[in-house]
Amino acid sequence: MPKRFTIHYACASLIPQRTSYVTVIGVCDTETKKAVTFSMEDAQKNLGTQSSSQELEAALLKEFFAFVSDHPGALWIHWHMHSVEYGFEVLKERYEMLWHAPAPEFTSTINLPDKIFGTMQRHCRIYPKMYRFFERNGVNDQAILSGEEEAENFEKANFAPIKYSVRAKAEALATIYDKLQEKTLETLCRRSDKKVWAAGLLIFFAAAAYLAVRGV
């Protein structure tokens, strides 16, 4: 069975842009729960404090895409990493710009909030929000920072908190994915929404049974 990884990453600016430095990429194996990070902090330890942000980004992307190449056919589970400003295509574009070589492909991906919405929340029309889902499902890792806090740490060249935050988010996404698979995920729907939805289903099946008996 192909590996399944949750993935999250941080960039240098509060509002993700294609031109923003990638600062940390976090990956968590959903089966073993082992998390790995590819970060500017680790790159700086290897290259030295005199290295530029571009050199550090190039190093972490090289290690990350080597990891991708080592796991062909893996399923990558993410939270909204499918836009032109933030996502897989941005990572590939940054790698190709810095290394002048084609980036390995992500052969299979799942946008976790779409999966949650389609499976568990469509009836109450509340689209999943990542931080609220973490809180609702007991994921309270103090290492998790907001995007604004991560950007502020980058401005201070304080890379360690960003690394710990992104790793914690990748681990949290693995927890959310497991709960979804096990059908134990706490959603953002109000209890009244759930009752209305359940009542609607009962009415639908009752009507279908009545029509079947009448031969309609």
Written account of the structure:
The protein is α/β, with parallel strands linked by helices and 216 residues long. The protein has 2 domains: 4-185, Ribonuclease H-like superfamily/Ribonuclease H (Nucleotidyltransferase, domain 5, 2-Layer Sandwich); 190-216. Helices cover 52% and strands 13% of the residues. It has 8 helices and 5 strands; from the N terminus they run βββααβαβααααα. The chain has helices at 40-47, 53-70, 88-99, 112-121, 130-136, 147-155, 159-182, 191-214, and strands at residues 4-11, 22-29, 35-39, 75-78, 108-111. The termini are far apart. Mean pLDDT is 88; it is low at 192-201.
Please sum up the structure shown:
This protein is α/β, with parallel strands linked by helices and 216 residues long. The protein contains eight helices and five strands, in the order βββααβαβααααα.
Topology of helices and strands:
Elements: E1 4-11, E2 22-29, E3 35-39, H1 40-47, H2 53-70, E4 75-78, H3 88-99, E5 108-111, H4 112-121, H5 130-136, H6 147-155, H7 159-182, H8 191-214
Parallel strand pairs: 1-4, 4-5
Antiparallel strand pairs: 1-2, 2-3
Helix pairs in contact: 1-2, 2-3, 6-7
User: How many distinct domains?
Assistant: 2
Give the DSSP E fraction (strand runs of 2 or more residues): 5-15%
- Work out the radius of gyration: 21 Å
Q: What order do the SSEs take from the amino end to the carboxyl end, as H and E?
A: EEEHHEHEHHHHH
Give the number of helices.
8
Largest sheet: 5 strands, mixed
Q: Write the CATH fold name of the largest domain.
A: Nucleotidyltransferase, domain 5
Helix share bin = 40-55%
CATH architecture of the largest domain: 2-Layer Sandwich
What general form does the structure show? Answer: globular
Mean pLDDT over the residues: 88
CATH H-tier superfamily of the largest domain: Ribonuclease H-like superfamily/Ribonuclease H
* CATH C-level category of the largest domain: Alpha Beta
Structural class: alpha/beta
Q: Low-confidence runs (pLDDT<50, min 5 residues)? A: 192-201
Distance between the termini: 47 Å
The largest sheet has its strands arranged as 3-2-1-4-5
How many strand elements? 5
